[in-house]
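Lab intake sheet, docking and co-folding queue.

SAMPLE TYPE: protein with bound small molecule
LIGAND NAME: zinc ion
LIGAND FORMAT: SMILES
REQUESTED OUTPUT: full 3D complex as structure tokens
PRIORITY: normal
SUBMITTED BY: R.K., bench team

The fields below were copied directly from the construct record.
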Amino acid sequence: METLHDLSLARGTLDRAGLRRRDPDLLALLLKDPQTRVVELVEGRAQVIESGRDCALLLRPPVEQDAFRLAVFLGQDGHGTSFVGVVGDAQDPSGTAPWRSLRGVGALLSDRDAGIFATVQALANWHASHTHCPRCGAVTEPDQAGWVRRCTRDGTEHYPRTDPAVIMAVTDATDRLLLARSPHWPPGRMSVLAGFVEPGESLEAAVAREVFEEVGVVVEQVGYLGNQPWPFPGSLMVGFTGRAVDSTLSLDQEEIIEAMWVSRQDLPEMVLAGRFALSPTVSIARRMIEHWYGGPIDTPVTP
Ligand SMILES: [Zn+2]
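RESULT FIELD (auto-filled):
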């Protein structure tokens, strides 16, 4: 089975240099070194330098305020340059570089920058939601260069979470693709099904369970397709294919408000006609749909 390569958010190139996180002075030293490159994240956005369709993260030397911010050591490149992510309070309106979200620019960034943005976004989300110890409720504080939070009362260490989710391109006996619409998605969006892996469950079992729960279809021949981080807020999306035993759909109306089997012939016409919209190219969903289709799918030009 052919797998998906170069997924937008699975292209990171930095050496994470995990052993350096053990140095308790690492961040303080790096944030005093003008050779360090810092990416600042504010409310899920980072500054980018745009040039045509290409886009690069604005990576700057440390500034004095960085020492007072939540900071994470992201790793180093082949030239020995160290990269640090910091979480700022407000977007500096004086800069000329626009602030962009990872969803917006993840597919346009270089391999290195896409990996940097995905990692700092995932870590920032985790820090923001793990300010207190799950054992005793006391405040936790960052440790290990931003890769651990330690309880200030009982000293327990808490590690960044990544929540696995499965996403599946299900086809029927005539190779039509199952697309569905969740009430939680943007209006008009149709996509492949996805869901979180439950405790005690394998990835393949999660694929079969989710498809049956959401549209009443039994799937078999579940096969791995690819994976990428999806830090909104903290998932790893693992893509699969699956074959429906029967194409009769029976929707769980709370989770799925519309579902259909779409042929290769009909899909591009329906998209261009505005019948529904697909997920953005930064998503594994879009890549899976185009993988089934056999190439890029044109979308209407948005005003
Ligand atoms: Zn505690």
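REVIEWER NOTE: The longest strand covers residues 219-230.
SIGN-OFF: pending second check by T.M.
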